[in-house]
Design brief:
single chain; 375 residues; mainly beta; Porin; 16-stranded antiparallel beta barrel; two-stranded antiparallel ribbon; 21 strands
């Protein structure tokens, strides 16, 4: 779908070549104006330009490829995330906070080293409709659009319709600036403590021209300054060095001409470790549909259901959006969502930065009109 192409990991590019190497400059600039109601205990209304995201997070990057012969290539990606409204850096102020890795690629797959997306991200790309938008899976689990790890070694290969992948991180936050929301600053790579702050993930997917199915698993170990957060209004809690935060995912999609449908489940279990509270589980379900009405106009919608029995927090959210392509690179869009919280929950409808959390038990509406340009 055109919208997914512009808003996912794929990009349009400008390239130059020298001495057998090509370097591609690419990016997305995306922002707009958002309305959110029932903010805080006083149930205030908020109108703002959000700090991050929109239809997709703003970013620019460099991708390089050098042919080494015999089908082998040296590759790298350096990708910066920034907030369009103020021009400030995202990902805790990192220069290349979205991606920063180097690797080798061939017919056998790609082996890469550095700061990279975990396999949780690759399980969602091209399978799930909402993507990293303002109103999406990230509204109920804000880690999902930010699933990255520092100090990582990753492998991913496609063999016919089958894709396999795995990643291992020696310490998921090397700079201590907060790798992803709700994790704290778990640096890892501590001498004599091999497991502290490590991250492992794995992927298995099957894709054809008309449908696909995907499974993934990701496990984060605790450590010094590590925390876990279910983003439901309950305060973050420490994740001890022997604690474990695991997400398991299954999803599927199918295409019928100009239409695409998706459905999936993401289960999470957190064992806080010695001295912590009891284990906490959540189940997040989603299903949606997109339709390209004309080559220039696309609409989509998705429903989400979050259940956390231990916290007694539940939420149901529905999202609708429409995009009009002014050109191959530029689109205008309108997106809106309605979120219903259970009595003890305070999930926020918006992923657009702090300041939009509702009061406990309050429902919330969000709407945004925006403009996106890709290069």
């Amino acid at each position: 779908m055109k919208l997914k192409f512009l808003s996912g990991l794929a990009f349009l590019s400008i390239s130059f070549a020298a001495h057998g190497q090509s370097v591609t400059l690419y990016g997305v600039v995306d922002t707009g104006v958002e309305f959110v109601n029932h903010v805080g205990a006083a149930s205030n209304t908020l109108v703002r330009m959000p700090a991050n995201s929109g239809l997709a997070p703003s970013r620019w990057g460099l991708r390089g490829v050098e042919n080494l012969g015999n089908g082998l290539q040296a590759i790298f990606v350096l990708e910066n995330g920034f907030n369009t409204r103020g021009g400030d850096l995202g990902q805790g102020g990192r220069l290349f906070g979205r991606q920063s890795w180097v690797g080798l690629s061939g017919g056998w797959g790609t082996l890469s080293f550095g700061r990279q997306y975990t396999m949780t991200t690759y399980a969602l790309v091209d399978s799930e409709i909402s993507g990293p938008a303002m109103y999406s899976l990230g509204s109920l689990d804000n880690y999902l659009p930010n699933a990255r790890a520092d100090n990582s070694v990753a492998y991913k290969g496609r063999f016919g319709p089958v894709t396999v992948g795995a990643m291992y991180s020696f310490g998921r936050d090397s700079t201590g600036t907060g790798n992803s929301p709700g994790q704290g600053t778990c640096a890892g790579q501590v001498a004599g403590d091999f497991q502290q702050c490590r991250n492992i993930s794995a992927l298995l997917r099957y894709d054809t021209a008309h449908f696909g199915v995907t499974a993934s698993y990701e496990e984060q170990r605790g450590g010094q300054n590590a925390v876990f957060n279910f983003f439901d209004g309950i305060a973050p809690a420490p994740l001890g060095r022997n604690g474990k935060d695991a997400r398991t995912q299954l999803n599927a999609y199918a295409k019928f001409g100009a239409a695409k449908i998706d459905a999936g489940w993401l289960g999470r279990r957190v064992d806080p470790g010695e001295g912590g509270s009891a284990a906490v589980r959540s189940n997040l379900y989603f299903a949606g549909m997109s339709y390209l009405i004309t080559p220039a106009f696309e609409v989509d919608g998705e429903g989400f259901r979050m259940i956390n029995a231990q916290h007694d927090t539940r939420a149901t959210m529905a999202m609708l959006r429409a995009a009009y392509f002014l050109s191959k690179r530029t689109l205008a869009y309108l997106q809106c969502a309605y979120l219903m919280n259970s009595r003890h929950a305070a999930y926020s409808v918006s992923t657009g930065g702090p300041g939009a959390t509702p009061g406990v038990g309050m429902n919330q509406t969000g709407a945004m009109v925006g403009l996106q340009h890709s290069f």
